[in-house]
Amino acid sequence: MSDPNAQPPVDPAKGGSVPPAGDGATPPPAAPQQPPAGAYPPPPAGGYAPPPPAAGSYPPPPAGAPQYQQPYAAAQPMSPSDEKLWSTLIHIGGIFFGFIPPLIGYLVLKDRGPFIKAHTLTALNFQLTMLIALVVGSILTIVVVGLFIIIAVYVVVIVFSIIAAIKANKGELYSYPLTIQFIKA
Question: If we measure between CA atoms, which residue out of 143, 142, 125, 137 comes closest to residue 179?
Fold first, then answer.
């Protein structure tokens, strides 16, 4: 199909002329609108520059400069029900994950109240003591006596952690028996 708006070709041998290049429908490319790199930007509207900073004041920091960060606020104290909940969870977490929940609880929650601090500290000391007993039992498995020590340690951890969780849920302080005080308050 042919374009209905297209003009028929003209043969220059018969007296016609060839239109010059550039007379087509495409306009020439526009001049760039942005100044080249390194050139000064145009002045602001009105032709006035911003006023210099007042004497004694500092200029604003350059873009991308680190900003001053306000110090963090102190941790808010927990409500008694939250302290009981977290203390209970830390004691129960020690059954499944050893000393990790009491350690995290002590590092994160110790400043949130005296009740939670006491429970996380006692749970951490107890779990560290039981970890040492497990290492000793593992070494003694060579002599076969260690297997009984490992089983006894797991039973002690389960029983005493449940007792501690129940006491914590009632809002009472609990001190584990057979505990070495590695971390003191």
Answer: 125
Give Rg (Cα) of the chain: 40
How far CA 161 is from CA of 22, 64, 79, 115, 180, in Å, comes to 91, 52, 23, 17, 16
φ/ψ region of 56 (left if φ > 0, alpha if ψ in -120 to 50, else beta) reads left
Q: What does 105-174 look like in DSSP terms, one character per residue?
A: HHHHHGGG-HHHHHHHHHHHHHHHHHHHHHHHHHHGGGGSHHHHHHHHHHHHHHHHHHHHHHHHHHT---
Q: What are the pLDDT digits (tens) for 7-50?
A: 666 555 665 555 555 555 566 666 556 656 656 666 666 656 66
Nearest Cα neighbor of 74 from 35, 110, 116 is 110
pTM, rounded to two decimals: 0.61
44 vs 147, residue with greater confidence: 147
> What's the distance, Cα to Cα, between the start and end of the chain in Å?
94
